[in-house]
Design goal:
Layout (H helix, E strand, L loop, with lengths): L1 E9 L6 E7 L21 E2 L2 H11 L4 E7 L6 H17 L4 E6 L3 H7 L25 H14 L2 E4 L20 E4 H7 L12
Parallel strand pairs: 2-4, 4-5, 5-6
Antiparallel strand pairs: 1-2, 1-3, 6-7
This protein binds iron/sulfur cluster.
The site of iron/sulfur cluster has 13 residues, from loops.
C-alpha cells in the first residue's frame, strides 16, 4: 500500500485529537474530490513497518482519541489488508481509542461484501445515484478480512462525495448523502445506526 500523508493532532476528521492516515488509491472518482491526487494507487510513499511504528507512537499520548483512515479509499481491496493489520495492532495496544474510516462505499455494501448482511439490503442506484452497487460482488473473496476490519471499526463515514449535495455546515462529512455510522450499534441492532454528531448551525 502507498500513502499520501500521516497527520498527527488533527481535529477535523472525527472527534477529539486524532492521527490521520491518508491511504493512496481510489476508484470512486467523485466529481470535485478534495484529494484527487490520491486516486493513484502509487501516489506518495510506500507504507512499511516504519509507518506502523510512527502511527502507534503518535497514538500513545492520552489526549489522542484515535485514528482516522481516509484517502483515497481505505476499503479498496488493495489497501484493506494493511489497514486491517494496523487496526488489529491499534486495538490490541489501545483498546479504548477509536477507529474511524472514510469510505466511498456504502456501509450496506461493505456489510454485504463481508457476508454480514445480504446483498439485497444495498440501496439501489435510484436512492443513491452515484454509489456503486456490488458490480463485482464476490463473497468468497472478501468475507473474512473485511468482516474483521468492520468489527474493529467504531465509525464509518460512508458514501461518495456528491458535489450537488456539498454543504460546508456538515460536521465530519462533505456532502449531505454521506452518513456517520456507529458500526458496533449497527452490527448489534441489524440496522443502520447513525452516530450522534450535530452539524454546525
Ligand atoms: S471517495 Fe473520497 S477520495 Fe475517492 S474520489 Fe470520492 S471524495 Fe475523492
Amino acid at each position: 500500500m502507498y500513502y499520501g500523508v500521516i497527520k498527527k493532532n488533527d481535529i477535523a476528521n472525527g472527534p477529539g485529537v486524532r492521527v490521520n492516515l491518508f491511504v493512496s488509491g481510489c476508484t470512486h472518482k467523485c466529481e470535485d474530490c478534495f484529494n484527487a491526487d490520491t486516486w493513484a494507487f502509487d501516489y506518495g510513499f510506500e507504507y512499511t513497518e516504519k509507518q506502523t511504528k510512527e502511527i502507534l507512537d503518535a497514538l500513545a499520548p492520552e489526549y489522542v482519541a484515535g485514528i482516522t483512515f481516509l484517502g483515497g479509499e481505505p476499503m479498496e481491496p488493495a489497501s484493506r489488508g494493511t489497514v486491517l493489520e494496523l487496526s488489529r495492532q491499534i486495538k490490541t495496544l489501545y483498546p479504548y481509542k477509536t477507529i474511524w474510516i472514510y469510505s466511498g462505499y456504502l456501509v450496506e455494501e461493505l456489510l454485504a461484501r463481508a457476508g454480514i448482511w445480504t446483498p439485497d439490503r444495498v440501496p439501489t442506484y435510484d436512492q443513491v445515484p452515484r454509489n456503486r452497487v456490488l458490480p463485482d460482488y464476490n463473497p468468497a473473496a472478501d468475507h473474512e478480512a473485511l468482516s474483521e476490519l468492520i468489527r474493529l471499526t467504531d465509525v464509518i463515514v460512508d458514501g461518495e462525495f456528491m458535489k450537488e449535495k456539498k454543504n460546508l455546515r456538515l460536521k465530519f462529512r462533505g456532502s449531505e448523502n454521506q452518513r456517520i455510522i456507529d458500526i458496533p450499534s449497527t452490527l448489534k441492532e441489524g440496522t443502520i445506526i447513525l452516530a450522534d454528531y450535530k452539524d454546525r448551525a
